[in-house]
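Hi support team,

I'm filing this because I wasn't sure whether my run with pyridoxal-5'-phosphate finished correctly. The job status page said complete, but I'd like someone to confirm that the output block is well-formed before I use it downstream. Pasting the exact inputs I used:
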Amino acid sequence: MQVSPMPRANQLAVEVATPALMVDLDVFDANVAALSAMVQGTGKTVRPHVKTHRTPRLAARQLGPHAAGVTCATVGEAEKMVASGISDILIANEVVDPAKVARVAALARGASVRVAVDAPGPVKVLAETARRAGVVIGVLIEVDILLHRGGVVSATEAIELAQAMERSHHLRFDGLMAYEGRQRASVPDRGTRIARAYATLAGVRSALIDAGFGVACVSAAGTSTLREALADPTITEIQAGAYALMEPDLAGLGLPFRCAAVVRGTVISRHGRHFVLDAGRRSIGMEYGPPTPLRIEHVGISVSDEHTTIETDVSLPELGERVDLVPGQIRTTFNLHDAVWVARGDQIVDRWPISARGQSS
Ligand SMILES: Cc1ncc(COP(=O)(O)O)c(C=O)c1O
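And here is everything the job wrote out:
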């Protein structure tokens, strides 16, 4: 895996208290450009999933000729993105709580908003709330193609939902969405699983078209299924998110992206063959495994709340020295920090708020 070197402490123009989350903007921008190049000529678009970093200033950098808007997981994320000036949002989840539906309608006053549905009840609530608010909300029917994370399980259900939307002047049926992500290189029968998932999606789309519905948008995919999604004739819009910051676990897929973020820690203890950093699970996401220390050959690593203990056969860093860790799980990592330090090469240039941090409702 190629990982960008981050600036070392003695090169910093400003004081960075550790643990500190840092992003190398040059690498981030290169990842965004690499995805744009992959999409070019495919007729598809990207709708980057910003749950990855929950940082509006990073989200804005992901927009461009192939990406008119962003994907959010929650209404709270969407509100922060719209407040920052992003005006084209997909909430790639069902919203069934009437209070949250009212927030979606409020957002639709100032932005183009789409939301996922998979049942008739919430369609009624959405339609009525949009009518009262005097707005139009775009709707994608979610299809369960693999993960059972939500979505209709038959074409008949999808047709019934599309018919229910036809009766409302305040809902616009825009197409389908699905998520088949997390298909890492190590997943057994990966190719067959993805092909089966896409066949399900194609079947539902065909059934809707046969029933007389236009299916303008089919939004799906994550970083791990990027290549397959770009080659698939059904999918029109790619929801990848992790690609912009990357995770070591995704490296085996041979994608043209590099890890762009680290958590920087300080050596606070060193004895025998191990040293300890002041960064742990309270600042590093661990769901996909422990972080990877940069530039340090290590033979063992363990992470607790505020500590990462690294065992090595080579000489130990000095007390007070800074060590950078590439997080195994980027989404949780960003959600643990209020702000991200922004670097270009070896220069720290800014500090941006992770303003949608904690916005899980
Ligand atoms: C619905 C949906 N779409 C897209 C993504 C992006 O996937 P990735 O971050 O692997 O690119 C996610 C991530 O969890 C997701 O939940």
